[in-house]
Amino acid sequence: MPIRTVMKANEAAAWAAKLAKPKVIAAFPITPSTLVPEKISEFVANGELDAEFIKVESEHSAISACVGASAAGVRTFTATASQGLALMHEVLFIAAGMRLPIVVAVGNRSLSAPINIWNDWQDSISERDTGWLQFYAENNQEALDLILIAFKVAENEKVLLPAMVGFDAFILTHTVEPVEIPDQEVVDEFLGEYEPKHAYLDPERPITQGTLAFPAHYMEARYTVWEANENAKKVIDEVFEEFEKKFGRKYRKVEEYRTEDAEIVFVTMGSLAGTVKEYVDHLREQGIKAGAAKLTVYRPFPIEEVRELAKKAKVIALLEKNVTFSVGGALFQDFSRALINEKEKPIILDFILGLGGRDVTFQNLDEVLEISRKALNGEKVDEVNWIGLRKEIL
Amino acid sequence: MAVRKPPITTREYWAPGHAACAGCGCATALKLATKAFSEAMEEKFGDPNAFAIAQATGCMEVVSAVFPYTAWRAPWVHVAFENAAAAASGVEAAWKKLGRKGKILAIGGDGGTADIGLQALSGMLERRHNVVYLMYDNEAYMNTGIQRSSSTPYGAWTTTSPPGKYSIGEDKPKKWVALIAAAHQIPYVATASIGNPFDFVKKMKKAAKVDGPAFVQVHCTCPTGWKSPLEKGVEIARLAIETGVWPLFEIENGDFFNIKIQPPGGGAKVKREGGKIVAIEFKKPIEEYLKLQGRFKHLFKRPEAIDEMREQIKAMWKVLGVEVTLPKPEE
Ligand SMILES: Cc1ncc(C[n+]2csc(CCOP(=O)(O)OP(=O)(O)O)c2C)c(N)n1
Ligand code: SF4
């Protein structure tokens, strides 16, 4: 029987790792993810998880050790955030290029400077071009579930890509919520043992991994990463479906909320989706035709689903806890790309908010609504808007 | 007819067909190292193939693993420049979990070891991974075109330590990574040279057989970067030993008081106390080593720089507990 209990997202991530039974874990502490390796240490110390836990001297070595272990043919896991993920940056490309299905839990935190330990998505968003799959959790249950799902998708033969699962710093990492811990047997059935067919370091059948490629081959190697990302779209749907059958919880790449007959749809990711759904309820009570959508999967970017969503809205208001300087947020580019050649498309507005852990309040969302309504009425508004800025201290 | 047993296995792991420059001393080092490893694995586990290699970016990587070819007949993985030790840690952990017997060999150049990879190396040694780390020391970043590293010797020309009006070439003494490794009190640390291949093989085998981490720093010539004659690699490396430039020693369990120094040969007079070498009177001047290499050519117009080099070499030997006398060439 699954156990219903309460825990922080960090603990949920550690539980997910325990249930997935990785053989090697390598990690280095960083706020807000520190509890993940701590909890895993406990599991290992108590004999509840039979894994090698390498207490590396940096995140660069954490991910390098994961690459080594994954290349040797075992399931691997690590957790990090912010500067830690940034320090991994170089090796993230390598893990994807070598097609190693490593899973990383990311406690989404802002980047320095100024140093700030609170939530936004700049850390993992900045890694969007590494080839990694990216999932974002709305709550602690999703943090657990999506890590299991990430392993299953990553290890699929049509995919073989590393995956990161983000959950918001403090809002989730340190907040206790009800979480259902699935049965080990069901997880075992769902995930199975990892059997490497392409990456192993076996003296009986020696292979060379991580080679140099000349211009004659490099592009094709990169294309396979592209292709694997494309393949992942369908695989993710299949895995979501299987997950629902086994565990009863339903996931969609783009989860829609009250979008039927909506004129304005607020689109976001992570824990902010919870706030936005509530805000939509509040608007609906006033008869305002608003809806919400959450990207559970950010990479591969769910272009088809986004196009379907766009058909339902007159204004898409993107709520982003990240910045791509001089452009807007990352979603703004992705949505623009998805819709640019569509015959009919909604107005896309970008809202940068909640950076570095600033609360996103209903008042902030009222501002978003107001700008969106102006646009809806044909008034000229800015495409990119910083919401909740304290202009008085600028 | 009696067939003489070859001095080392005829098995090849670093296979012919790699793309290293003609006369590359590092290629020789890797060939010997993997053969030695294989012998050690055979003796320890009864399986000559019981090892895998994790290698850093650098000359020896780019010349051996160019897709779709490979010069490797052993399981081999390259991740990046600075993380051979960390990647090896992961491989070793995976092998442990897979119940696979054998040992991991990590390979890095002096740049990937002494500079950018030093932290990962320290972490790996400190965590006691069952890995032999082989630093092939050609004393510069050769892969990117001969830039200085912290392992480049004093006075050497490189493209980032050019001699000039205000420069004698590299102006810092060489960093001795073997001593840093030994400070981790790991089971086995050694320096070796392709100038003494038997000693190198013996040490690699010893390193491969200990339980826990081991570190071997092998001096290997690079005719391209050293501007030296292709055919003289082994001779030059041997001269480094015989003139005192390159000490050969072993340190077990971080016990600096029991450093085992190999006598340098070349007519050097060795003084022992209680079996330990305490003083060496070298007979060959360091100039004999320097003059065969274009990278030191400019020093012959700057004898004070060569004298400074002598002082640095003496100081380095002092750390090893040995008083050395270094002759000047006869006028
Ligand atoms: C992070 C990073 N910085 C720089 C480089 C470029 N780079 C590749 S190999 C190399 C030098 C390698 O020198 P060394 O380790 O001494 O090996 P060698 O080429 O001499 O065999 C450099 C600087 C790199 N690959 N990665
Ligand atoms: S540059 Fe030097 S180290 Fe590199 S392959 Fe050529 S000889 Fe060997």
UniProtKB/TrEMBL annotation, chain A:
Catalyzed reactions per annotation: 2 oxidized [2Fe-2S]-[ferredoxin] + pyruvate + CoA = 2 reduced [2Fe-2S]-[ferredoxin] + acetyl-CoA + CO2 + H(+)
Pfam families the UniProt entry points to: PFOR_II (PF17147), POR_N (PF01855)
Enzyme kind, highest EC tier: oxidoreductase
An example Gene Ontology molecular-function term: pyruvate synthase activity
InterPro entries named among the record's database cross-references: PFOR_II (IPR033412), Pyruvate:ferred/Flavod_OxRd (IPR050722), Pyruvate_synthase_PorA (IPR053390), Pyrv_Fd/Flavodoxin_OxRdtase_N (IPR002880), THDP-binding (IPR029061), Transketo_C/PFOR_II (IPR009014)
Sequence ranges assigned to domain Pyruvate:ferredoxin oxidoreductase core in this UniProt record: 262-364
EC numbers on record: 1.2.7.1
Keywords: Oxidoreductase, Pyruvate
A Gene Ontology biological process term: response to oxidative stress
Ranges of residues in domain Pyruvate flavodoxin/ferredoxin oxidoreductase pyrimidine binding: 16-240
NCBIfam families, alphabetized: PorA_Arch, PRK08367.1
Subunit structure: Heterotetramer of one alpha, one beta, one delta and one gamma chain.
Protein name: Pyruvate synthase subunit PorA
Annotated organism of origin: Thermococcus profundus
The organism's taxonomic lineage, starting at the top: Archaea, Methanobacteriati, Methanobacteriota, Thermococci, Thermococcales
From TrEMBL, chain B:
Keyword Oxidoreductase carried by entry: yes
GO molecular function: oxidoreductase activity; thiamine pyrophosphate binding
Source domain of life: Archaea
Biological process per Gene Ontology, one example term: organic acid metabolic process
Keywords: Oxidoreductase, Pyruvate
Record flagged with keyword Oxidoreductase: yes
Pfam families, A to Z: TPP_enzyme_C (PF02775)
Domain Thiamine pyrophosphate enzyme TPP-binding: 57-218
Quaternary structure note: Heterotetramer of one alpha, one beta, one delta and one gamma chain.
NCBIfam families xrefs: PRK11865.1
Entry protein name: Pyruvate ferredoxin oxidoreductase
